[in-house]
Known about the structure:
The chain is 38% helix and 15% strand. By secondary structure, the protein is an alpha+beta fold. Belongs to the FAD-dependent oxidoreductase 2 family. FRD/SDH subfamily. Its cofactor is FAD.
Amino acid sequence: xxxxxxxxxxxxxxxxxxxxxxxxxxxxxxxxxxxxxxxxxxxxxxxxxxxxxxxxxxxxxxxxxxxxxxxxxxxxxxxxxxxxxxxxxxxxxxxxxxxxxxxxxxxxxxxxxxxxxxxxxxxxxxxxxxxxxxxxxxxxxxxxxxxxxxxxxxxxxxxxxxxxxxxxxxxxxxxxxxxxxxxxxxxxxxxxxxxxxxxxxxxxxxxxxxxxxxxxxxxxxxxxxxxxxxxxxxxxxxxxxxxxxxxxxxxxxxxxxxxxxxxxxxxxxxxxxxxxxxxxxxxxxxxxxxxxxxxxxxxxxxxxxxxxxxxxxxxxxxxxxxxxxxxxxxxxxxxxxxxxxxxxxxxxxxxxxxxxxxxxxxxxxxxxxxxxxxxxxxxxxxxxxxxxxxxxxxxxxxxxxxxxxxxxxxxxxxxxxxxxxxxxxxxxxxxxxxxxxxxxxxxxxxxxxxxxxxxxxxxxxxxxxxxxxxxxxxxxxxxxxxxxxxxxxxxxxxxxxxxxxxxxxxxxxxxxxxxxxxxxxxxxxxxxxxxxxxxxxxxxxxxxxxxxxxxxxxxxxxxxxxxxxxxxxxxxxxxxxxxxxxxxxxxxxxxxxxxxxxxxxxxxxxxxxxxxxxxxxxxxxxxxxxxxxxxxxxxxxxxxxxxxxxxxxxxxxxxxx
Length: 657
């Protein structure tokens, strides 16, 4: 049975009750306990700095050359927090409810409420670290709107919020490194978890510079290794993002939860050709002021400026008047796909819609004219002043779009289309963020816990920092309090021998295939299968075909992949091959999970389960549970169900109309 360890009592008191009654480790004993952290993005860096500050001996690992290159740096639009600075009706409960509803009632209430509770603390923490959040004229922190909400609760630093937050966490991490509380291992990749007497006691890592395998002991292991969106090959994720750390843990007994819940982001630069290896995100914050539209006439090849207002379909505003352009990501993505599939797409590929800032420029320009009391002004003055305001708010995003497309978004509407962005699924964890392997924790995007079937915009940074700064310092103590008598286990223990041999054998097997096809070609083929049959829309027939195709691809990969170079040296192709091998196995499980979940919810859209208006149709009677998969053998998983109980946010059909 899955034990989620949710504390008893009223929902809004569970976290307070837990903190008041959890076990503690005294400062002297903390210095005797070793903690391993894999990944140093927002979740990992904040956890490492927090646990180092508490006195634990921390070892942190990242495969990049610096923690500052973690993919958290790419987050653009903002971070949510229930501070109600706008006095517009926000509250902890409102953030909790929006997150549960946005996730289509497939998240655990207790975890989400805790996230909403600690959200306000994150902002104070980051301001104290010097994170340069945007501010209003009077000096107060500024907020903007994001999808799925009717309040302004998103704090931001232009379009570089992830970068600024990561630098804040990185500074805290480096302070602990300087104090000797954290030892940093850059360019090291975790390739296995060491389990001794049923508990996670260490990891096997590969030094990516020398190729040497290393052993590291820890009283507990924390995985903060990010999401698995690159299983689709083309995504907004950095090309190095992978599932390997989480998948190796899965192979050692950690259940994988809701793997089919992946998020398609509605505002990305469209695919331009087969040459691309990744896609570029245009922040959801752009939907805060931009209007999305397509021509009312099919296959309309006119320039956007030649299409009059009466011949434009602002389809989100038309279909969802209460939220308009700020509907959640899954809703906006499906609506864009529907318009393009129906023949209303724009651009040369016809797989794009317009994101237009003309109205916003005009509106801001008129406000500036009024503020400056300009009596005698021209239309050009209004436009110029409006562009200045937009540049201040979104300038770096506009610059990025122009560099990539060669088009000036101040003059022409941006062309956008949905793309894979985030994964709500991940390793199953209980309320304390522990996986089904005792002593093995999972945080941030790598776990499944807070976003259900669809993540609201600006909630990823919130979850990563909440887990690292404010949750794990309490919950890990509840476990480590019983480990203070456990001495450090020597890394010549037979379990370490066995784990290292398994990793070494896998690497040797890969290198000895000596086939003809590149790792990249297999990754591309896997991505096409996943996008076509487990992407924005899924059906039973396509998923069954995908499972068979992935099994055949796996067989071909292990018989015909070609990896140049040698083992005991820097070998990026070998690193990539190891990751793609894991992606192939994950892809099969994702399709199996999507096939099992015969309902539509959030980002998981089964064509067999939709309303007459084409909206996602949930089946709460049959599928109000978390799918937690246990690996039994090759191609065989056992499903465990964690029933979801909603005591406060009663499930209802989602409506943003």
